[in-house]
Amino acid sequence: MNQVSIIIPSFNEEENIALIYESIKKEFTALAYDFEIVFVNDASTDRTLKQIKLLSGKSSKVKYISFSRNFGKEAAIFAGLQHVSGKAVIIMDADLQHPPHLIPSLIQGWEEGYDQVIARRNRKGEHPLRAVLSSTYYCLINKVVDVKLEDGVGDFRLLSERAITAVLSLNEGQRFSKGLFSWIGMEQKIIDYENVLRKNGQTKWSFGKLMNYGLDGLVSFNNRPLRLCFYSGALILCLSVLYSIITFVQILKTGIAVPGYFTIITAVLLLGGIQLLSLGVIGEYIGRIYYETKKRPPFLIQETNIRNGVAYEKNRPRIYQIRHYRGN
Ligand code: UDP
Ligand code: MG
């Protein structure tokens, strides 16, 4: 029987681990597929790992990878993808916001031959301000980035073996999965579902984290902000040259007028602002180059119970990690 792997990044989700396991198990009883769940514990500070180990003690279908510190959801997804052994993988959140009852539809899409079957949520029940900010962000960002980023489309999706290999072959350190999934392309099917609110625990996304995520999306997939700096710089330079020539001619004709305080201060502030903004944009890219040249692994594994169940080995980029095998 073919196996489908489920990756669940988990950070402080102690109340949800058993719930999500039961829901997934229920879904698979009616399916002609075997399953494995790979929980990626992102250094939770509560009893998440304990709950996962409890399950893995009971069922060999439950596997886990536990990070040495919090590396974030993106790294957790990457780690999961490197360790799955199924013919397809489904990535879902631990908090049941990605409803397990969609699993059969995702698998059906895969059976139809799609490489990516994407679950797309609406924004029902969400804070209106967040909904408005998000849709504005997606509207704007799609005008500048090279890939298509869609509102309501996240990491909740099924990837075929081919898609997994493709995603893993992109070995950039700072990963923006949404963009990477879109970048690989392939045959895609979208399944819509109603937004579900988190039942237990709290969201890990503060406003600041969301802003950073948004910026990651912007600068990970294009160099247009750099171009924008260049063009606005060039435009301002032309205007200043024109202004100097006009003023110089005027001085020659009528002599020096009373020095214009307003003009000077406006020019200084405007130019200063544009320069700082441009420096910020350049700095953002240089920062990325800095981290990429270090070639640090995107995560370190503290412990795991996965030993030989690693598929797609040939295509995997090499990573360096602390490994400490326990369990079965
Ligand atoms: N998560 C993680 N590491 C983090 C933050 C979150 O692995 O540093 C996991 C979290 O446990 C959950 C998923 O990522 O399974 C989505 O997080 P959350 O529900 O907080 O995000 P939201 O649904 O609010 O966008
Ligand atoms: Mg959530």
From TrEMBL:
<feature type="domain" description="Glycosyltransferase 2-like">
    <location>
        <begin position="5"/>
        <end position="162"/>
    </location>
</feature>
<dbReference type="InterPro" id="IPR029044">
    <property type="entry name" value="Nucleotide-diphossugar_trans"/>
</dbReference>
<keyword id="KW-0472">Membrane</keyword>
<dbReference type="InterPro" id="IPR050256">
    <property type="entry name" value="Glycosyltransferase_2"/>
</dbReference>
<dbReference type="GO" id="GO:0016757">
    <property type="term" value="F:glycosyltransferase activity"/>
</dbReference>
<feature type="transmembrane region" description="Helical">
    <location>
        <begin position="228"/>
        <end position="249"/>
    </location>
</feature>
<dbReference type="InterPro" id="IPR001173">
    <property type="entry name" value="Glyco_trans_2-like"/>
</dbReference>
<protein>
    <submittedName>
        <fullName>Glycosyltransferase family 2 protein</fullName>
        <ecNumber>2.4.-.-</ecNumber>
    </submittedName>
</protein>
<keyword id="KW-0808">Transferase</keyword>
<keyword id="KW-0328">Glycosyltransferase</keyword>
<keyword id="KW-1133">Transmembrane helix</keyword>
<keyword id="KW-0812">Transmembrane</keyword>
<feature type="transmembrane region" description="Helical">
    <location>
        <begin position="261"/>
        <end position="286"/>
    </location>
</feature>
<dbReference type="Pfam" id="PF00535">
    <property type="entry name" value="Glycos_transf_2"/>
</dbReference>
